[in-house]
């Protein structure tokens, strides 16, 4: 068998790649920013801001004092942060355990399969995805020479599972989730802390909390856009809108319970 790619073909590919870089319509899309804890930070941060601000909105609507806001706000923030962190840790650990167990099952199936039934399953799958039957057979026969590769391919193609990342530590994910929840969740409460020496108006403090929450949501939306390669303005506006809707619902509920349902102090 000759070379798969000749030197002449390689040269032509390099020329085509260079022409593609010069063609504005063929520019390669920007890759998203990759980080080990991106999901934990964004998810926990967004949930923390909305949860904290919604609680402040419901308390403010019932005309409670700044002390009530701070006590209930921080208590709720720490409790939810611990819950989120433990939840992330447990879900990550469970997911890794499931994948590891499933891989053991797949290894056993490959080692104890009757005839070539494991190979035939992959060949049929590739053929269903548009690969020529002869090409699919060739590819799978090559995989069959390398047990670990064949097992990983069956995990991904048949069961939709990627091999567990050995470098991933579930406890780190949980810790990052907790820290992100606390850091972002404090933003709406800062207004009540900063403005205490300057004003006794609960309305002014609540307006300050609205502004700080909007800024925090906007920054988180921009960060999410940067990570995912999305439009900054749209991502920030959409994130602020989601937080605003949740806070409005909480404020309306608090106001209703106070003034309509007659739940007075």
From TrEMBL:
The keyword Transport applies. Keywords: Ion transport, Iron, Iron transport, Membrane, Transmembrane, Transmembrane helix, Transport, Vacuole. Its main location: membrane. PANTHER family: FE(2+)/MN(2+) TRANSPORTER PCL1 (PTHR31851). GO terms for cellular component: vacuolar membrane. It is found in: Vacuole membrane. GO terms for molecular function: iron ion sequestering activity; iron ion transmembrane transporter activity; manganese ion transmembrane transporter activity. The chain crosses the membrane at residues 175-200, 206-225, 232-253. This is Vacuolar iron transporter.
């Amino acid at each position: 068998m000759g070379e798969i790619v000749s030197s002449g073909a390689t040269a032509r590919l390099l020329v085509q790649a260079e022409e593609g870089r010069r063609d504005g319509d063929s520019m390669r899309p920007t890759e998203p920013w990759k980080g080990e804890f991106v999901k934990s930070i964004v998810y926990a941060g967004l949930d923390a801001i909305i949860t904290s601000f919604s609680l402040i909105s419901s308390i403010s609507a019932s005309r409670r004092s700044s002390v009530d806001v701070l006590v209930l706000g921080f208590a709720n923030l720490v409790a939810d942060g611990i819950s989120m962190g433990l939840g992330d840790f447990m879900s990550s650990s469970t997911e890794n355990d499931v994948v590891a167990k499933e891989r053991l099952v797949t290894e056993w199936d490959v080692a104890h399969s009757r005839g070539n039934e494991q190979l035939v399953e992959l060949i049929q799958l590739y053929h269903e995805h548009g690969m020529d039957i002869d090409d699919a057979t060739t590819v799978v026969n090559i995989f069959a020479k390398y047990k670990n590769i064949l097992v990983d391919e069956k995990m991904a193609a048949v069961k939709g599972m990627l091999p567990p990342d050995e470098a991933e530590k579930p406890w780190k994910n949980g810790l990052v989730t907790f820290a992100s929840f606390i850091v972002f969740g404090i933003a709406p409460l800062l207004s009540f802390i900063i403005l205490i020496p300057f004003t006794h108006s609960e309305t002014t403090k609540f307006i300050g909390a609205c502004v700080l929450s909007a800024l925090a949501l906007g920054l988180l939306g921009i960060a999410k856009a940067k990570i995912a390669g999305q439009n900054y303005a749209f991502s920030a506006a959409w994130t602020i809108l989601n937080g605003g809707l949740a806070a409005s619902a909480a404020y309306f509920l608090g106001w209703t319970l106070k003034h309509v349902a007659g739940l007075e102090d």
